[in-house]
Amino acid sequence: MNLEEKKEEEKAQYAVRPHHRQKRLTDGKDDTLKYRNILNSVFMLLAIGGVIVYTQTEHRLIATVVLIVAVILKFVEVSLRMFRK
User: Fold this and answer.
1) Which residue among 24, 30, 37, 83 has its CA within the 20 to 30 Å range from the CA of 13?
2) According to the UniProt record, where is the region Disordered (predicted)?
């Protein structure tokens, strides 16, 4: 047995499937993931829109309200993630 065959044999020993199984994120029972994704998408759109309105126009109050609403939506999404059973 030469050195190259020995290395191939050692590599084959490490390619073993683990004995534990992780639960899939999308097992079909968890609807909160869908709601969290929607809330994250709306948050990103509002945050980008609020920053654009704040920097490109003189409507600072409207931009501030949009950004506050975006932060509130993010808080809702984080609370769904934290308090999920």
Assistant:
1) 24
2) 1-26
Q: Quick check: 73 and 42 in contact, CB under 8 A?
A: yes
Cα 13 to Cα 2: distance, rounded to the nearest angstrom = 17
Rounded CA separation 70/49 (Å): 10
Looking at the predicted structure, is the pLDDT value of residue 12 above 60?
no
Q: Are 61 and 54 in contact (CB under 8 A)?
A: no
User: pTM score, two decimals?
Assistant: 0.65
Q: Could you give the dihedral angle defined by the CA atoms of residues 37, 43, 48 and 53, in that order, rounded to the nearest 10 degrees?
A: 150
What is residue 25's DSSP assignment? S
Which residues, 6 or more positions from 58, have their beta carbon under 8 angstroms from its beta carbon? Answer: none
